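Thread: "does anyone have the structure for this chain?"

Original post by V.I.:
We have the sequence but no experimental structure in hand. Need at least a predicted one for the grant figures.
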Amino acid sequence: MSDVPMNSAAVAAPGAAAPRWLGVALPLALLLLLAVFPPIASALGLDFYIGFVRRVLVVALAAASLNFIMGFGGMVALGHAGFMGVGAYAVVVLSDAGWGSAWIMWAAAMGFAALAALLIGAVSLRTKGVYFIMITLAFAQMLYYVFVSLRSYGGDDGYTLMVRPALGLGLNSADESTLYWVVLALVAAVLWWMDRATKSRFGVALAGIRDNETRMRALGYPVYALQLTAFVLAGAIAGLAGALLATGNSFVSPSMMHWTQSATLIVMVVIGGLGRRWGGALGAAVWLVLEEVLKLNTHYWHMPLGLLLIATALYAPQGLAAWGGLRKLRQLREGSKP
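Reply from O.Q.:
Generated one for you, tokens below.
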């Protein structure tokens, strides 16, 4: 599987494709490393970072879902965090109603978020460009103010889950390592599915719409239906990310669906690589790790992150995923020379 996006520039350089084994070996090695992280962190007395890495995984999932529609579909949505909020509040509402199974809550969270994405996407996709950005922002802010006004669920103070949803199957959701492994398995499975989806006929058609919507429409592709399907799928995955975040933190707040959170997700995708295979996840990981490190050392942590964004725009305009891939290819080519 190539690490190169489906655009004309990439197709023009087939010799630049990364070795196939590398595209499989690297994710598996990373997955193995993440899987053994909890016992290593516990042995080193760094249990706090089990929860932190779990949060990175969840946010990476949300950023990857945004990359799915923005990078591969060309739909710049400035309200993606709203779907995360819907998923998170679905867990709260179901818990308050007496439901206890995490699997039912997470599935329902995806359903509610998908429904919200369907309603919002059905209207928003009738606009293009900056109007699409503004209308998705408007809908997300409407969702934000709806949940701020829900006093029964804490309003703008947020709401605390007294008990984490039960995982069943002999798994204890109160155990940080167990919940970490469950989240890791879910995130890995969904990222794998999204990777396959971008390479399917649906994904190729979606990329074609991004590159030339008029031509795809002339060829008979149902452009609106394809874009709406992608928008709903991305919304459902963002809803799952919100549900996992609510389960892990045992707390939800309307602030998680504020438009600034959606803007941060966009920045993560741009830093990681718009339309790149691991762009969203990589951008989220880099952003959150740097944020954590900088917060430990300075109160002015916003400035270095701003400089990172400027450096990315200047020296890696296609994102860190593309920059790393090009360096790797260069090294492989130089190593193969006699």
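V.I.: this helps a lot. Residues 18 and 329 are 7 Å apart (CA to CA).
O.Q.: and The first strand starts at residue 159 and ends at 160.
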